[in-house]
Amino acid sequence: MSTPRIAVIIGSTRKTRFADKPAQWFMDQVAEHADLDFELVDLRDQDLPFFDEAASNLWAPSSDPRAVAWQHKLAGFDGFVFVVAEYNHSITGALKNALDQAYKEWNRKPMAALAYGGVGGARAVEQLRLIAVELQMVPLRNAVHIGGGDFMKVSPLGEDAPMSAIEDHLKGSVKGMLGELTFWARLLKDAPKP
To answer: Can you give the pTM of this predicted structure?
Structure first.
């Protein structure tokens, strides 16, 4: 069995986003993870239009070549880790649009989250899990949350310390999430898709 491929999707596109710091830290944590192959996917690089198709690609092929290119990219992955910023108790508009641009390509694949914000992005992750259920993904219980004092320690809004300053608080969550992600990615990799 080939190694499952996991996209680590940065879900914020703002110029001043914080996402790059935890995303790079996470990629460093999983660099030697032998059971999964991780690739960083930045929504800034995807040139996605606002969703404007006749219907979801479950029902009708997408007409915009940028949406089709996104669907092809997603189809090559066996699971997803979303780097989630919490905006007004939810996910970013850019991430919601990226989710809406595909359907079949998300189906029967696990999704996990690395989230940040005042309460660790927990409300955004809950919104993301609801969307994931509709897209027939397998939302994982375990997630990594950077919130409260830890967020202010590493955020430019606070001390802007390196991620290493808080990583001892996060490693248990990373380990739990990776164990669950590995299990589901292997189980679902060769499962028939709808």
So the answer is: 0.96
